[in-house]
Amino acid sequence: MPRISKHDSSLVESGLRCCVREGSKDNVTVKVFKDWSPLLDGTSVIMALSESKLWNSFGISIADAAIHNFFGVLHAGKSFMEKHLSIFLHLHNEHISCVKPENVPQRVLPKLVKDAVAAALRQLKTQLPGDFSSVHQAKVGNCLPDLATSLATIVMDSSNQHFQEECSKILGVQDVNNVETAILQRLSSISLAPDHGGRMLPCKRQPKKMDEMDV
Q1: I need a surface site. Which of 80, 124, 131, 196 has the fewest CB within 10 A?
Q2: Is 46 within the bounds of a domain?
Q3: Can you tell me the distance from the alpha carbon of 90 to that of 4, in angstroms, rounded to the nearest whole number?
Q4: 39 and 59 in one domain?
């Protein structure tokens, strides 16, 4: 089953069993996977996992890739964070506890592994959206503080008290001085929502009427 661990771990091979040891010195977990067998040729799998499009959706760039025995450990380093992830893949289906690699057609195996990694990353991104933002989301996120400041300035510098009160009400703040923080929080929550790697498109400019801009 696809699983991603952020802990230091080691892989120990013993016969047809694969043991994964992870955790700290005071809290160690050992998991044993039976019917484990090596993948003789992992070239096609490595090529499939080397596609940048797969990782860019989660803000990850490949630092290095290596297949040891079964699928081994794929180390991926985030381009904007000093983190490393260890990914362990274990093939299985509903009827068989473990599908041996040699029983999987070679033309199917790369796609199977790639889909497994993507599924695991999607699950992890749901739990930690801020740590696995796509490249698109990261670009948007860098612009949010300035955007929040600009929008807050419009509200705070307005001479229309009713306008200020309505904006504060919509944002759920009582003090107009908290508007910028509230705007940034709203924008951040929207930018971290699941996306599909879309491109940032320029907004269509609409004609402005001065009497409608009385703020």
Answers
A1: 196
A2: yes
A3: 11
A4: yes
pLDDT at residue 2 tops 60:
no
Report the alpha-carbon distance of residue 77 to residue 152 in Å, rounded. 36
**C-alpha to C-alpha distance for 6 and 81, rounded to whole angstroms:** 13
111 or 19: which leads in pLDDT: 111
SS3 75: strand
DSSP assignment of 107-126: TTHHHHHHHHHHHHHHHHHH
CB contact set of 84 (below 8 Å; sequence gap of 6+): 63, 75, 76, 77
Of 197, 12, 31, 37, nearest to 118 by C-alpha is 197
Whether residue 13 sits in one domain with residue 47: yes
Per-residue model confidence as pLDDT tens digits over 79-129: 333 344 445 555 444 444 445 555 556 667 778 778 877 887 788 777 776
Q: What are phi and psi of 28, to 5 degrees?
A: -110, 135
Q: Quick one: 86 and 185 in the same domain?
A: no
Pair 76, 59: CB distance under 8 Å: no
Chosen domain end from 115, 132, 149: 132
